[in-house]
Design brief:
Layout (H helix, E strand, L loop, with lengths): L3 E4 L5 H11 L7 H10 L6 E5 L2 E14 L5 E12 L8 H15 L4 E4 L13 E2 L2 E8 L15 E5 L6 H13 L31 E7 L2 E11 L2 E2 L2 E2 L1 E10 L2 H13 L3 E9 L18 E4 L2 E4 L2 H7 L6 E8 L8 E8 L2 E6 L6 E4 H7 L6 H6 L4 E2 L4 H9 L12
């Protein structure tokens, strides 16, 4: 098989994206969705594999900045739109795209790459580790009650159209204030605010159009929630569902007021949550967590493209001075020993000939990088080896994050 791997030309986008749609089930997206992704695609950072005139492989990389422990915003390639035609499976198409892409990311000076996976088993062989999880829940609001903090009643709630003048900008301002607080969050570039407002009628599946409620105090927007209502009835009466898209608030009272609003919407008996942080605070407001049907799921997969630069870019909640022996056959420039020395003020990471304290793969280093997965737990699974007694506890404590890392939306 002779194929041509090349950078995506704007004129080829329709054919390229059509092959992506086919690979993900063959259902054409709405004109609204297609227009958004066409505008967001960075052609010079996207690749296609062509067999003659036919596109048989796709891969892209968005220009992102990812928050890491300590609050720094690190240049990151957001790997996206990856597919291989069913006629060209097991012929090296995916490997060739991953090889070219990681070489490109390194040449762009971006120490991290990250993605969300349709199938989690695919990307480990290319050095990606599962670094964040998202919490899903189905809350029985007929039987679960909220205990809210003082000041909740002082928050004014106002229903607005999600795209009304000034509303998207107010919501983005609240979101932006959270970006530096939680590892895994993305600083949204212009245009990305449209993703949260995407609401094609063909995707609603019986739900209402997108709803938005603002939380305000002294005329300032201090929080928002965007959601759908899905009405339903049985012989005993209404049993509708509130499906939450996103929610952010600047203080506990505004946060609680928004959740209370979701619980109290008329003719509903459930709130469905698809993507929240593992440590989301509403879990401490509810009267009965067993009736919330909590379930975690993998979210952001992280790949250290440049080990030294990536480990230097974040801080460490406890002092750490360890030598990692890193295995990385796919990006061999990372292989070898790296001494990491750091604390809450900063870090350095450089090659060393000193004896190794911990041996691990770049995949497992990526899993632990944002602080949501401990090296200790990976060692218990046989994935990490401690070579100096005490080094594992030291590194695990230093790498940990005080809040759970979280990716608020896909890409």
């Amino acid at each position: 098989m002779t194929t041509d791997l090349r950078v995506l030309r704007p004129a080829d986008w329709d054919a390229w994206y059509g092959k992506l749609e086919l690979a993900f089930g063959g259902v054409a997206e709405s004109a609204e969705e297609r227009a958004l992704w066409s505008d967001l695609t960075e052609h010079d950072r996207s690749l296609g594999v062509w067999d003659g005139d036919e596109c048989v492989g796709t891969a892209g990389a968005f220009t992102f900045r990812l928050t890491v422990p300590g609050g720094a915003s690190v240049p990151t390639a957001g790997v996206t739109m990856v597919s291989v035609a069913s006629t060209h499976r097991r012929r090296g198409v995916l490997t060739s795209m991953m090889r070219r892409q990681l070489d490109d990311v390194r040449s762009w000076g971006e120490p991290l790459a990250a993605l969300t996976a349709s199938e989690p088993a695919i990307y480990g062989r290319f050095g990606y580790g599962i670094a964040t999880q998202q919490l899903r829940a189905e809350i029985d609001t007929d039987r679960v009650r909220l205990s809210v903090p003082d000041g909740t009643d002082d928050v004014r709630l106002r229903l607005v159209k999600p795209d009304a003048p000034g509303v998207p900008e107010a919501c983005e301002a609240v979101y932006a204030r959270h970006v530096a607080v939680r590892p895994g969050m993305l600083a949204r570039r212009p245009g990305w605010e449209r993703l949260a407002l995407l609401d094609p009628e063909s995707d609603r599946k019986g739900t209402s159009p997108l709803q938005c409620v603002l939380a305000e105090r002294d005329g300032e927007v201090v929080g928002y929630a965007r959601y759908f209502n899905k009405p339903d009835w049985d012989p005993a009466g209404p049993k509708g569902t509130v499906e939450l898209r996103d929610l952010e608030a600047l203080d506990p009272a505004a946060y609680a007021a928004l959740w209370r609003h979701l619980f109290d919407i008329d003719l509903t008996s459930k709130v469905k949550v698809w993507n929240r942080p593992l440590d989301d605070a509403w879990q401490h407001l509810v009267s009965d967590s067993r009736r919330c049907d909590l379930a975690p799921r993998d979210s952001l997969h992280v790949r250290l493209v440049e080990v030294g630069a990536a480990l230097e870019a974040r801080t460490y909640q406890a002092p750490v001075d360890v030598v990692f022996e890193v295995e990385d056959s796919f990006c061999p420039w990372n292989e070898g020993r790296w001494r990491l020395s750091g604390d809450a003020k900063g870090a350095s990471c450089a090659r060393t000939s000193d004896p190794a304290d911990i041996a691990l793969s770049v995949r497992d280093l990526g899993a632990a990088y944002l602080g949501g997965v401990s090296l200790t737990s990976l060692a218990a699974a046989g994935r990490v080896r401690e070579l100096r007694q005490g080094a594992l506890a030291e590194a695990s404590l230093g790498l940990a994050s005080v809040v759970a890392p979280w990716l608020p939306h896909g890409f």
